[in-house]
Amino acid sequence: MSISSEHKPFGKQVTASLHTLSPIVELNVGGEMYTTMLSTLKKHPGSKLAEMFSGQPKLRTDSEGRFFIDRPGTYFKYILEYLRSNQVPTQCIQDVYKEALFYDIEPLIKQLEDSPQIFGELVARKQFLARVPNYSENIELMIRIARAEAVASRRSSVIVCVVRTEEDAARCQDALNSLDMDKKSVVKFGPWKAAPSISDLLDCIQMDVEAKGYKISFQPHVAEKGFRFKSHDFFYKFLFTWW
Known about the structure:
The protein is an alpha+beta fold. It is built from 10 helices and 9 strands. It has a 5-stranded mixed β-sheet with strand order 1-4-5-2-3. A 4-stranded mixed β-sheet has the order 7-6-9-8.
């Protein structure tokens, strides 16, 4: 006994050609419902979204027969508005950018990358951090050290050495050796060849650790005997607060 088209099971894969469908399409995007024209979804032929609705798509439908896309539905409205009217969103820029990348809508991607938010992150900050050796690895190292010291404590601290030039790195080597002899873990950032200063890098470290959900602050590391220079020139203490 065949199942009628009016009682489609949830998750059924659609293999029929979309040329036979109505020009009006109903969508379920992550639980958000949308209705639009098939031509709107296929506006940019080279995009992943257009490919979803071209030829013989491998899409699934929900219990009501709507095409299901397993992405955040909240931001799809901005994608749809762009396809309808070429209007570039001014809200939720970072999240819409992620969706534009997923759907591979190249014109929207390029226009969003020209926005101050994305331009500043991709072209300015990310390009700077790409010139700081092992930046991402050092962020993870800081977190591991802080978590290891968090047992039965409200706060834990990580000493960070930031050197912008090779000369700075040589100047602080004695202090690093001294800290190592005292069995104190130090995470060293730099040197780098870019305009941003040490304070700029410190802000980036705080920003990226906080983006991972941690509550963090930093202050100059208090000078100890054996340091040949003011410790706040290169050494900082990052404080993780756990509760």
